[in-house]
Write a structure and sequence with these properties.
Strand content: under 5%
Structural class: mainly alpha
Low-confidence stretches: none
Number of domains: 2
Shape: globular
Helix content: over 70%
Family: Belongs to the CDS family.
Strand order of the largest sheet: 1-2
Keywords: Cell membrane, Lipid biosynthesis, Lipid metabolism, Membrane, Nucleotidyltransferase, Phospholipid biosynthesis, Phospholipid metabolism, Transferase, Transmembrane, Transmembrane helix
Number of helices: 10
Main location: membrane
Subcellular location: Cell membrane
Protein name: Phosphatidate cytidylyltransferase
Order of helices and strands: HHHHHHEEHHHH
Mean pLDDT: 89
Length: 267
């Protein structure tokens, strides 16, 4: 537990510092997290990160993180997206299916899941008032994770999904949801975000649930591959995928919910 707390304090401090700093420092942080997560994802599958199809997956992950559509030069990224997908499929042909379509498909799914998940994180940070919005989402997700862990340990009796994650309980999930919604209100006040109460709580609930679903998705991946942690980079936490699995679902969920519910009021 001491190792977990120390890693969380130091790593979380660096993460928040670079997030607040923004600009190139934040872009570098997101790129490092995304490529690190994809590296762990490839290793979990027992594949070589230096294999040609894996290298294409790294490239696709990076492109999707910073993917935008707008000016002509931005559309070159769309061209690259198509080219990487084409090359992945061509590898199956060139190797006469020694590298199978099934083996290639996990690369494509992982790159899209990780790359676009972090794309939304990067996009939220870079919109107007992006920093307080980003900190608001982080407050909801991290409070949810922390509360779910401690409430589950103290009061957990009914397993949430034992075949996927044998330690998670309904009590922990509900406790995390309630705490996340409370954190949403406190964070909105502290960060000076003008809000409408009902849409704020609805958005927070969706973000909290999305984060917990992201955790379950990663648990399902690890369970199917027979691994305990995605890596060992973060003592007490496992790997980058273990630490950021919630955020790559929570940020897309926040963007979609904010569009529909408009929880915040701008002058």
């Amino acid at each position: 537990m001491a190792k977990r707390i120390a890693t969380g304090v130091i790593g979380g401090g660096v993460f928040l510092w670079l997030t607040v700093w923004g600009g190139g420092a934040f872009a570098g942080l997101i790129a490092a997290i995304g490529l690190g997560m994809f590296y762990e994802y490839v290793r979990m599958h027992g594949d070589r990160p230096t294999a040609p199809h894996a290298l294409l997956g790294f490239a696709l992950t990076f492109v999707l993180i910073f993917f935008t559509l707008g000016e002509i030069r931005d559309r070159l990224k769309l061209d690259l997206l198509w080219a990487v997908t084409f090359l992945l499929l061509f590898i199956a042909v060139a190797t006469q299916n020694r590298v199978s379509l099934r083996r290639l498909s996990y690369i494509l799914v992982g790159a899209v899941y990780i790359g676009l998940g972090l794309h939304y994180f990067h996009a939220v940070r870079n919109v107007e008032r992006g920093l307080p919005l980003t900190l608001w989402v982080l407050a909801v997700v991290w409070t949810t994770d922390t509360a779910a862990y401690f409430v589950g340990r103290a009061f957990g009796r009914h397993l949430l999904w034992p075949s996927i994650s044998p330690k998670k309980t309904w009590e922990g999930a509900v406790g995390g949801l309630v705490a996340g919604m409370a954190a949403a209100l406190i964070a909105a006040e502290v960060l000076g975000l003008p809000y409408r109460a009902l849409p704020l709580f609805a958005t927070a609930a969706l973000v909290s649930i999305g984060g917990q679903v992201g955790d379950l998705i990663e648990s399902a991946i690890k369970r199917s591959l027979g691994v305990k942690d995605s890596g060992s980079l973060l003592p007490g936490h496992g790997g980058l995928f273990d630490r950021f699995d919630s955020l790559i679902v929570a940020f897309p969920t926040f963007v979609w919910a904010a569009r529909m519910l408009a929880p915040f009021l701008w002058p």
